C-alpha cells in the first residue's frame, strides 16, 4: 500500500503483448519497447498544480483526477512536460481537431494500449495480476465511490490501480472505421463489475467526453537506464 500523489515513474521492460478485441474476435501481437509508466493515475493534486483546475466530481488531493477528456489528458501531458523542461510529446491543433505524437520527444504522454496492457500484466499471464479484491476498487469493494491512489496492492512492477478505481485513457484510436475518433480506455473503474477489471478488456469513448470514472496515467519513452 502506498500514499504517493506525484508523478513517480517506474521503468517498464520491453516485451511482447497479444491484444484482442471481443467484438471482432481478432487478436494481434505488438512488440513493446522499454518505457516509463507512472506509479499512480494522475491525482487531483498534480492536476491542479499543473492546470489550476479541479474538474472531478469527488474532491480529494489523492483521488485520481476524473471528469477529464482525452483532449484534457494530452494537453496536461504537454503542460507538465513544459513545466519540467521536457519536449512536449504532442503537436495539437487549436480546436481539438488534430493531435500528432512526436515519438522522438522526451516529454510526458499517454501510454499506447499495448504499453498499458504490457505494464498491467507485469509478466503475469492470467486475466489479472492478483486476486481482484486485493488489487482493485470495483463494484463489490468500492462502496460506489472512487478511492485514493495506492490503496490496493501494486502489481509485480510496482504499478498501483492498473485495474479498477478509474479507467485510463490510452493514445490509440479504438476502431476508426466503425467508431471514428473514439479512443481506447483500459483498466475498469470503481462502478464496474469484475469482468471489466481484466488486463485484456478494451472500452472506448469519444475524446471530448468527460466521465466520472475515467482518468489517465503518464508514460515517457525510453527508460532511466538508457536516457
CATH superfamily: paralog of FGE (formylglycine-generating enzyme)
Biggest pleated-sheet summary: 4 strands, mixed
Share in β-strands: 15-25%
Element order, helices and strands? EEEEHHEEHHEHEEEE
CATH class: Alpha Beta
Helical content class: 10-25%
Q: Looking across the biggest beta sheet, what order are the strands in?
A: 9-8-7-10
Would you report the number of β strands? 11
Q: Give the structural class.
A: alpha+beta
Helix tally?
A: 5
Shape label: globular
Distance, first to last CA: 29 Å
As a whole number of angstroms, the C-alpha radius of gyration is 16 Å
Number of domains: 1
> Which whole number gives the mean pLDDT?
93
CATH architecture: Alpha-Beta Complex
Describe the structure.
- The chain is α+β, with helices and mostly antiparallel strands and 227 residues long.
- It has a single domain, classed as paralog of FGE (formylglycine-generating enzyme) (Alpha-Beta Complex).
- The chain contains five helices and eleven strands, in the order ββββααββααβαββββ.
- The chain has a four-stranded mixed beta sheet, with helices on one face. A three-stranded antiparallel beta sheet has the order 1-4-11. The chain has a two-stranded antiparallel ribbon with strand order 2-3.
- A hairpin with a 6-residue loop joins strand 5 and strand 6.
Amino acid at each position: 500500500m502506498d500514499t504517493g500523489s506525484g508523478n513517480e515513474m517506474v521503468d517498464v521492460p520491453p516485451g511482447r503483448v497479444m491484444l484482442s478485441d471481443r467484438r471482432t474476435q481478432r487478436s494481434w501481437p505488438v512488440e513493446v519497447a522499454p518505457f516509463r509508466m507512472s506509479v499512480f493515475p494522475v491525482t487531483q493534486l498534480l492536476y491542479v498544480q499543473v492546470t489550476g483546475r479541479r474538474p472531478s466530481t469527488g474532491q480529494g488531493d489523492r483521488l485520481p483526477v476524473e471528469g477529464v477528456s482525452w483532449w484534457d489528458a494530452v494537453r496536461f501531458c504537454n503542460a507538465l512536460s513544459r513545466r519540467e523542461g521536457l519536449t512536449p510529446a504532442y503537436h495539437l491543433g487549436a480546436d481539438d481537431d488534430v493531435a500528432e505524437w512526436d515519438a522522438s520527444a522526451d516529454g510526458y504522454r499517454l501510454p499506447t494500449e499495448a504499453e498499458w496492457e504490457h505494464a498491467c500484466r507485469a509478466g503475469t499471464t492470467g486475466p489479472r495480476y492478483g486476486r481482484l479484491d486485493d488489487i482493485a476498487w470495483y463494484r463489490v469493494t468500492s462502496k460506489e465511490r472512487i478511492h485514493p491512489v495506492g490503496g490496493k496492492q501494486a502489481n509485480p512492477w510496482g504499478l498501483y490501480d492498473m485495474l479498477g478505481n478509474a479507467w485510463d485513457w490510452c493514445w490509440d484510436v479504438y476502431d476508426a472505421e466503425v467508431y471514428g475518433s473514439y479512443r481506447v480506455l483500459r483498466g475498469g473503474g470503481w462502478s464496474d463489475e469484475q469482468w471489466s477489471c481484466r488486463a485484456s478488456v478494451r472500452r472506448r469513448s469519444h475524446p471530448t467526453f468527460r466521465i466520472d470514472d475515467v482518468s489517465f496515467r503518464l508514460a515517457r519513452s525510453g527508460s532511466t537506464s538508457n536516457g
